[in-house]
Design goal:
The chain has eight helices and five strands. It is of the alpha+beta class. The chain has two domains: 94 residues, no CATH class; 120 residues, no CATH class. Strand 3 and strand 4 form a beta hairpin. Helix 2 runs antiparallel to helix 3.
Length: 237
Amino acid sequence: MARSKDSASSSKEPGRLKQMWQVFQMTRRYDSTAPWLMLLGFLAPIALGLGLALWLSEGNGFTIALWIIAGALAGLLLAMVILGRLAERAAYAQIDGQPGAVGAVLRGGLRGGWIGNEMPIAVNGKTQDAVYRAVGRGGIALIGEGPSSRTTRMLEDEQRKVARILPNVPITLITVGHGDGEVPLRKIPAALRKAKKSLTKPEVLAVSNRLNSLQTSLPIPKGIDPMKVRSQRGRMR
């Protein structure tokens, strides 16, 4: 039994390493500066550790070695953090502009007590434009997926519906895109965090439950998962 557990744990390790390598390869394809940024992140703490060692160790070889090892560990951690941030940007770049991309961000990318709906609350079957909703301390956010020329009216219609149900809750309208006044896909969480806090945590949950109880189900496929995009990068362009 112990042998089977050991073999199972050892078989998982190559999978993690392979996954990290795939993430790195995918990131490098979308950002050619990724290897250099990771290398800089790795070497900078080592150089800092070496400098501190020469300054503080007074020639003690053991202390110098400890400083260098500490710098190497810090550099490895910093390189992994850089890879994670760049990989997230690359994953968003792959799904940017695709139907369901906003749902993927709301499902896995929100922080600060925001509750996002993976499924859109309104959709145009012909153009695949959609409106998504998130509820947080900043009130209610309605997020349009599609050109602002087409989603503005959809957002305003949903705003009127929500205002009739919850007239005292502030509503923020966001259009995802790269034009004037639009918010890039990867910056949706940051845009939500900027909203002025007006609800308590219990009120956030109550508002979310109230809206969900009134929302009719739509026959729309779920959004794209950026994590799946990373693992299936070989199947994509």
